[in-house]
Amino acid sequence: LAGVLWTWQTCNEFGYYQTTDYGQGIFGTPVPLNLFVYQCEQIFGVPMDHIESGVARSNYQYGGRARYSATNVVLPNGNHDPWHALGITEQGKLDASVVPILIDGTAHCADMYAARDEDPQSLKDARVTILNNIKKWLNGEFHKPFQTERNNKTERLKVTTTSASNLSLIAALLAPLALLI
User: Fold this and answer.
1) How far is residue 40's CA from residue 17's CA, in Å, rounded to a whole number?
2) What are phi and psi of 111, to 5 degrees?
């Protein structure tokens, strides 16, 4: 299921395809961009122009990496994950409800794996931080809606918090996380 959900997000929000289209690799181009576009078309009926507009919409809505504007988010990254260089790993000027965590000694998605006794303490601590923030938001301590101006235009982007009914659904889906720590 996780693979299907991730594929849906790449087709509708992220793009984020790792291809060999550059053409300078020693193996040619066995993984071209059109492979991923074909996948989106076949599985979800999503053509390339929809993928492109979805990426633009996500970057506009959340500000991209340079102007990230979401709230009530934990952003865990492992310092051994090559993708952490593209992630948000420091608080900087982010909203206080955004919690970046750089987890020492871990790789990609380590925080999502089942807990083990031999996990590094940094990973155990990160899971506690993640769970505590989710509990706080589910108990109503989430950031209120706000507006932010983009590119000095009069057009405004309104980012709203999740409704209480959606929070209940999220709580039910995340309940197994509590068993990990």
Assistant:
1) 12
2) -65, -15
Range(s) of the chain covered by CATH 3.40.50.1820: 65-181
Tell me, yes or no, if the pTM score tops 0.70: no
Which of these, 101, 63, 96, lies nearest to 81 by C-alpha position? Answer: 101
The DSSP secondary structure of 138-155, one letter per residue, reads HTT-PPPPEEEE-TT-S-
Strand ranges inside 25-152, DSSP E? 73-78, 98-103, 146-149
The average pLDDT across 65-93 equals 90
CATH 3.60.15.10 fits domain 65-181: no
Structure-block tokens of residue 129 = 């931080």
Nearest to 177 by CA among 144, 120, 138: 138
Number of H helices, E strands in the chain: 5, 4
The residue to which tokens 């071209």 are assigned: 32
pLDDT of the residue at 55 = 94
